Structure formats: C-alpha cells, structure tokens
Amino acid sequence: MLETMICALVTILPDFLFRRFVQGKRVGQEITLFTLWYELRWGLTTCAILALTIITTLFYFHPSTTSVASYFRTVTILPQVGGRVAEIYVVNNQKIVAGQPILRLEDFSQQAQVQAANAQISEVQASLNVAKTDLAEADAGIAGAQASLAQSADDLQRNQILRDEGSSAVRLTEIERLENLVAEREAQVAAARAHREAVEYQINELIPAQMNSALAQLDAAQAELNKTIVEAGVTGTIEQFGLQVGDYVSPLLRPAGIMVPSNSGHSRFEAGFNQMAAQVIKPGMIGELGCMTSPFTVVPVVVTSVQDVIPSGQIRPSDELRDPQKNATPGTVLVYLEPLYDGFAEKIPPGSNCLANVYTDNHSKLHAEGLGIWNKAFLHVVDTIGVVHAAGLRLRLILMPVNTLVLTGH
Questions:
Q1: 350-to-110, 150, 293, 333 alpha-carbon distances in Å
Q2: Model pLDDT for residues 324-342, shown as the tens digit of each residue
Q3: Tens-place pLDDT, residues 61-72
Q4: Which residues cross the membrane (predicted)?
Q5: How far is CA 86 from each of CA 103, 225, 247, 297, rounded to the nearest angstrom?
Q6: How open is the CA angle 70-315-335, to the nearest 5 degrees?
C-alpha cells in the first residue's frame, strides 16, 4: 500500500493534473467514475508497473520476515541417583547461582557407607600403632638375641683357648654344646632381624596401601553421599518446580524441574528468510527488528552469520525413501542477528516473537571507479527504497497492538 501511494504521486497525480488543468477536463463532468480508467489510463498503468517493480526490488534487495525469535536453552534438573526427596532449598521462579543446592535426597545408605569407610580407616590406623609397637618389640628382641649370642661366643672362645693350652678342665662335649648354642643364638638374631624387617614392611608398605584403599573407599562413599545433594550447574531461574518432600525423582524416569540459564538467548536472534534472500543476505548487513513484547521499539541489528544449509533438506536414515514432493512448506534461510549497539535488546525477553528487515547497502559500490551512470542510478534506487521498507516496519509495529488486541481477539 505504501509503495503504491508513493508511485501514485509520480504517475496518477501528474496525469490527473494534466487532464484537469491542461486539457480543462472537470471532475464529475469529463472525469467521472465511469471514465476514470480511460482518462487516467496512462497514469494508472504506469503506477501499476512502477509499483510492482518497486515492490519486487524492495523485497528482493531488502528482505523481511516475520519469523524471528531469540531461542534460549533450558537445563533439566536431574539427580545423579534416584531417591526420595528429603529437603528442598528453593522455590519456583527463584533465581539461583551456580553451585547453590536445590534439593537433597534421602541418604541413609550413603551415610552408612561413609561410616563404614571411616571405621576401616580407624582400623588401619590402629594396625599402624600396633605395628609400631611390634617394631619396638622386634628391636628389643634383636638386642636380647645379640646379647645372648655375644655371651655364648665368649664362653666358646674361652673354652677353646683352654683346650688349646692343654688344660684338663675343658671337655670336648662342652665345646660342642657351646658351638651349637652359638649357632642357635645366631639363628635367633637372624630371626629377630627378619621379624623386624617384616614389621618395617608392614609399616612402610602394607599398612600405607591399606590406608590408601580405605581413603579411596571413603572418597567413593563421600562421592555417593554428595550425589544426594542436587546443585545448580549454572546461574539461572528455576521453572516448573513442583516437588514436595517425599516425592521420588530419578535421572531416567522423573526430573525435578527445569532451569533457564541467565545468559541464554539474550541479545541474539534467529530469523528465517525466504529462499529468494539466500543470494542477498550476507554477514555484516545492517537490519532492524521489532518484537511483540516491545511493539514500539526498533532495535538496530547486524547479521553475524548465515546458515549454509536449509533445514527442509535434512534427512535421517530410515527404511523409507524421502520424496521431495512431501516438502509442503519450503525451508527458510536461517540468519543470526545481534544488536548493533550494546544494551538495545535487554528489555526483549528470550523467546519473543519478532519481525525483521535487512537492508542492502551499496555505499561502497557507488564509490567504485568505472561505474556506469545506469548502474549508479539503479544502486541509488535500491538504497533509497530501503527507507520505504523501514517506514513499513515502523507502521507494522505501531499497528501490532491493534492487530493483536482488537482484530484477532487476543
């Protein structure tokens, strides 16, 4: 409508003025409702052709769409283990930070495992104390065995000296007994040293290994106990949270609720343009958008990227051949938009339904050398009619509350 009115100003209006003031034809006399087509045929025909040309050029070089949204992700609140809810620390629609506890499950078995692991650690510690006592006892045994060995060796040496001097007071049986006693005492010393080495092995190797195993079991039990407390992984808002104490939750059967991250979906929009715009829209193009949640606000945006595939061509392996005829609705070109200036889209909540225009800019081409006059004129026309599309966007935003609240009955 706006394009037709503008075209009429340079076609139908001059034609009417020429008929009225140059040819002297009067409204209601020569120019009537029945003679309107014949009298203004040149203006009407030119207006129709020019309007169609402008509309085609406008929508091709300045694409628009009503399929714009700011998608956001949600995080399902799931426990790592199944169980009944023992405590709840949050309420629905509450804002929480990462690491804040949400709920706690019953932890009787996990607490028992932790206590058993602590008891095993205490038992290993007691074994270490006993081993240290055994080590002191082994040292005392070595000292006693060495003393007995020294005494027996001295007696044997004294009797051997007397024998060598030819004394009649020494008997050979006594020397043999002392030799056997010395060998026995040497074996006792070796046994005492071996016992000490065994105790040292227990203190240095066996008991530390047992302690490490007990500590690992405690860590595993503590990890299972920690799984009973569900914490927030990201900062966000709790939604659809209706748990009560005693409810059963499971990572497979029943989630606890949904969490919307605070930084998800803000200041980023996804727009679906028709496939005719695939050759026009490029990263870096400037555009504008308006949303139903803020109908009187125009947000300048910039195209950050364009998806290089069209979703309607997506296929999944199955036992049925895909028929292109079943694509009743052609897919759109997905374009990612971000606000041109920081803070302009803060008042638009994620998930808002929006409409957007993207404008072709030929400023750099117009300053290129060797550009013909007709090319310059065409590029000037393309850039100029973008104003019409911008005006149309603002008109639709103004009429959006009327269309939504009055004409469509909410």
A1: 41, 93, 10, 21
A2: 777 767 888 999 999 988 8
A3: 889 998 998 888
A4: 40-61
A5: 8, 13, 9, 48
A6: 25
